[in-house]
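INSTRUCTION: Work out how this chain folds

Fields: amino acid sequence; protein backbone structure tokens

Chain under study, with its fold:
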Amino acid sequence: MATIGEKLGDLAVEVYEKVLMDEIAKAPIPSHLAIITDGNRRYARGEGLPEILGHVKGKEKLEEVLEWCRDIGIKIVTVYAFSTENFSRTKREVDFLMDLIEKSLNDLLHDQRIVRNEINIRVLGKIEQLPQSLRNAIDKVENFTKDYSKFRLNLAIGYGGRTEIVDAVRRISEKVRSGELALEEISEETFRGFLYDPTIPDPDLVFRTSGEERVSNFLLWQSAYSELYFCEVNWPELKKIDLLRAVQNYQQRKRRFGH
């Protein structure tokens, strides 16, 4: 049973959240939020749990955070779910993560929140390197949500920013070699068309948990002029107030886009 002090603390946080929500409603909201969900394993170790259970908690936290994003007014969220570097982890952990992602995607096919909120789901990364059953789940959920447009969720699975750029260069080179594209036609906008998903706008804000201050090969091309915000807490411990503070901090900055 919660103590009086704990109840008062929860009430104070609730009031502060409402104050922040009212404040951020007065300024432009980041349209596209990119998230590096770091700290699942550290959280599990700190709680005395097996590391893989940290990923389960992380998956549950993502569902909660997406609801917060919708409440705030964010329209697009891109989540770093599994990087190309993550393939180097133990087979047990990689297999567990692949199964967890596959099950989560299949569950979305029966999740009424997807239909009610018209959430469009897309996956970007080296899809061909993923298990066939996971690729099948990706196809199903993308087709199921393809006509939805009120909210967009992009999942970076088997994704690496450098690999995406190299793959784009390869595809452009093939077009030049075949005569379909002239060298003088290559521009930044042309290059964007060869990324994994050219329809994704650049993120306004890149948000990372766990206190690490780096982008870890995430959306390297797209985040060239994104604002960065680093939060100290591990991903499964994230509170709505942490996200609200990030949005408020973003609103206080003057974006220059290199000028």
